[in-house]
TrEMBL record:
<dbReference type="InterPro" id="IPR018108">
    <property type="entry name" value="MCP_transmembrane"/>
</dbReference>
<dbReference type="GO" id="GO:1904983">
    <property type="term" value="P:glycine import into mitochondrion"/>
</dbReference>
<keyword id="KW-0812">Transmembrane</keyword>
<feature type="region of interest" description="Disordered">
    <location>
        <begin position="1"/>
        <end position="20"/>
    </location>
</feature>
<keyword id="KW-1133">Transmembrane helix</keyword>
<feature type="repeat" description="Solcar">
    <location>
        <begin position="24"/>
        <end position="141"/>
    </location>
</feature>
<dbReference type="GO" id="GO:0015187">
    <property type="term" value="F:glycine transmembrane transporter activity"/>
</dbReference>
<protein>
    <submittedName>
        <fullName>Mitochondrial carrier protein</fullName>
    </submittedName>
</protein>
<comment type="similarity">
    <text>Belongs to the mitochondrial carrier (TC 2.A.29) family.</text>
</comment>
<keyword id="KW-0472">Membrane</keyword>
<keyword id="KW-0813">Transport</keyword>
<dbReference type="GO" id="GO:0016020">
    <property type="term" value="C:membrane"/>
</dbReference>
<dbReference type="InterPro" id="IPR023395">
    <property type="entry name" value="MCP_dom_sf"/>
</dbReference>
<dbReference type="Pfam" id="PF00153">
    <property type="entry name" value="Mito_carr"/>
</dbReference>
<feature type="repeat" description="Solcar">
    <location>
        <begin position="164"/>
        <end position="255"/>
    </location>
</feature>
<feature type="repeat" description="Solcar">
    <location>
        <begin position="264"/>
        <end position="348"/>
    </location>
</feature>
<dbReference type="GO" id="GO:0005739">
    <property type="term" value="C:mitochondrion"/>
</dbReference>
Length: 368
């Protein structure tokens, strides 16, 4: 979901107005998050790969070798490279979307458009699950403060969620996304490297390293710190992006009257999620560009401020929105898929299951 996605979140929790109401077990949040994260990755990975290629700067071919080289960047950070494939792909970067897509297919076949799927799954499946669960628990916690609760509104939003002010939504969304994103930064780094032209052999190569082999190589060359390269621009992208997303999503959800009990959760949640991602994604694309450059070229993009200056000097203001259109489409699709699955599973099936259990319990107690 970029989850974030890349992308991509606000699960329902019990109402403060009804403290006796049983909470939905954490396993429901985790399972629905995993399902929505996996679905969005498998469907939308080609858009993410092309976006990374468009944001990438041209790389200079170097002498061929039959081995995968671990090339240390500044601070000893490794970048896995296949020099034999590097020469044939160097011209892909900084091209338009269509020519980039054709170049990828020419080099790796259609299967190459899904390159980087495995590290993306490692990042998104647990990431979206933890994100959903964190939002549920944070909303419950933050909602206890009257400062974050609307003074002249219902205590819950449609579907039984605790209703927060825009500031509360912003705080909950940004905190959950930033924390989960930071923990999973090594997989984000490996995902970016895998999608770029600098990383690993083509899909047909028998010597392509596994995800954890690649992580061990990066760690051996640059230490633990190297696995969190690009964490600062990633946090600057995720914190406001996720916070704004939650604000827009909650407003859209209320406008659409989304309620799992009425069976409209999946459709309404998908529409609200896709719409909310448009504005939040556009506003945070510059930090996504900085994150990509920092992770791919640590020798040149040595810090946040030097990266900003270098992008501006080479491409002007337009450079900060490279790949923005692809990112908007992918994030909107990811949010729509993710929230449709989540609303269907948690708000629909989960809440209905708990309601049936409560009714059965009442019937048994009444019959005794």
């Amino acid at each position: 979901m970029s989850a974030a996605a890349s992308t991509p979140l606000d699960p329902p929790v019990s109402s403060e107005a009804a403290p006796a109401k049983e909470k939905l077990p954490a396993t429901w949040h985790l399972a629905s998050g995993a399902a929505s994260g996996a679905a969005s990755v498998l469907i939308l990975q080609p858009l993410d790969l092309i976006k990374t290629r468009v944001q990438q700067e041209p790389s200079k071919p170097v002498a061929s070798t039959s081995r995968i080289a671990a090339t240390a960047g500044e601070g000893g950070t490794a970048v896995l490279q296949s020099e034999a494939v590097q020469a044939t792909r160097a011209q892909i970067a900084r091209a338009d979307i269509w020519s980039t897509t054709k170049a990828v297919v020419r080099a790796d076949g259609v299967r190459g458009l899904w390159r980087g799927t495995v590290p993306t799954l490692y990042r998104n499946v647990p990431g979206v699950s933890l994100y959903f669960l964190s939002l549920s628990r944070l909303r419950d916690f933050v909602g206890k403060s009257s400062f974050f609760r609307p003074k002249r509104a219902a205590t819950t939003s449609p579907g039984g969620k605790i209703k927060l002010t825009p500031i509360g939504d912003l705080l909950v969304g940004s905190t959950a996304r930033t924390a989960v994103g930071f923990v999973l930064t090594p997989f984000t780094l490996l995902k970016t490297l895998s999608e770029s032209t600098l990383s690993i052999p083509s899909s047909a190569s028998a010597t392509r390293p596994s995800t954890f082999t690649a992580l061990r190589t990066l760690y051996s060359a640059g230490g633990l710190r190297s696995l969190w390269r690009g964490a600062v621009p990633t946090a600057l992208r995720d914190a406001p992006g996720a916070g704004l997303f939650i604000v827009f999503y909650e407003r859209g959800r209320r406008i659409l009257g989304v309620s799992g009990d009425k069976g409209k959760g999946a459709v309404g949640g998908g529409l609200a999620g896709a719409s909310a991602s448009l504005a939040s994604t556009l506003l945070t694309t510059p930090f996504d560009v900085l994150k990509t450059r920092r992770q791919l070229f640590p020798q040149q993009y040595t810090s946040l401020w030097s990266s900003i200056a270098l992008v501006y000097r080479r491409s002007g203001l337009r450079g900060f929105w490279e790949g923005g259109g692809l990112r908007v489409v992918r994030k909107a699709g990811s949010a729509g898929i993710g929230w449709a699955v989540y609303e269907a599973v948690v708000v629909g099936l989960g809440e209905k299951r708990m309601k049936n259990r409560r009714e059965m319990a009442l019937a048994r107690s009444g019959g005794g």
